[in-house]
Amino acid sequence: MVEANFMPLNIPQHSIEITSDGNITGTDRIICRDAEYEFTGNISGNIVIFCDNITINGNGYWLEGNGESFGIFMEGIMGVTVKNLTITNFATGVGFSYAPRNCGDDSLVSNTILNCTLGIFCYEVKGAITISRNQISNCSTGIAAFEANNIYIYGNTIAYNNAAVSFAYGVDCFVYGNNFINNSAHIKSATVTWDNRRMGNFWSNYTGPDLNRDGIIDKFYMIDENNIDHYPRMSLIPETSLILSPRDDEPQMPWTTVLAAVVSTGIAAILVATLLLYRRNKNLKPYVEDPKNSDDAKKLPFEV
């Protein structure tokens, strides 16, 4: 028998901390307004977050490291959103680490992560993490996950990395609506879902015919034997087209199909009503006698 006991990552040495009670230590370039922590300038250093249900708003500023440690690190933290921040020159740009309870509903939105060994690393997390509308480039691996479940990656541009994504031992991870551009390898290792049944990804090394001009290449993209994008995109995906919920994976009928169904149902109802009226006017019996004509004859329903 083989057993595995994955332990939490060590909390890294850090210069800035957001404490469990919401205080900020180590910098005067982050201010707090309610539950939103806003950058007021560029920061050199790294941040560890111990507080749930907050938003880190970079306001377009930079968080810069020295090539080591984590830019932003969270362990067992829930409800944290990091947005509008450029994170550069770290061993890991953003890290989500193991927790004994579900660590969920965290989001990385509209950030730029570059020049890191790992852009984003999800380790032993069980809740939902959304990675959306980020630019991730010039990393050894753009997004990596180990024993992580319910990761939703959509609307990102992942470009010029040695490997774009690498997943191991995770389930229920979805990657769609992203632009994969000029990575040495788009996938290092992964078994995830690459579309939401309507939209796949744009792959810079995959082209093909689009005879019906719907923006989707007519042939599936077979990434490897375990990974298929069923709806690979013909061209770069603009953010304005990404209006789908990360969990909206059920196909929906277009309004023209719905309208046609309504009209067809209406016509069918009119025909049925006309037929019934015709029968009534012709005094047609709703039943016919049993053809055996026996004393215990049963009345059988009239068959249309």
- Radius of gyration, in angstroms, nearest whole number: 28 Å
Assign the structural class, choosing from mainly alpha, mainly beta, alpha/beta, alpha+beta, or little secondary structure: mainly beta
Kindly state the percentage of residues in helix. under 10%
Number of helices: 1
N-to-C span: 67 Å
Strand order of the largest sheet: 2-1-6-9-12-15-18-21-24
Strand content: 35-45%
Main sheet characteristics = 9 strands, mixed
Gist?
The protein has one helix spanning 255-281, and strands spanning 16-18, 24-25, 30-33, 36-39, 43-44, 47-49, 55-57, 62-64, 70-75, 81-83, 86-88, 92-97, 106-109, 112-114, 118-123, 129-132, 135-137, 141-146, 151-154, 157-159, 163-168, 174-176, 179-181, 185-189, 202-203, 221-224, 227-229, 287-289, 299-301.
Give structural notes.
This protein is mainly beta and 304 residues long. The protein has one helix and 29 strands. The protein has a nine-stranded mixed β-sheet, with no helix packed on it. An eight-stranded mixed β-sheet has the order 3-4-7-10-13-16-19-22, with no helix packed on it. An eight-stranded parallel β-sheet has the order 5-8-11-14-17-20-23-25, with no helix packed on it. A hairpin with a 2-residue loop joins strand 26 and strand 27. The longest helix is centred in the last third of the chain and has 27 residues. It starts with 15 loop residues before the first strand and ends with a strand. 33% of the residues are buried.
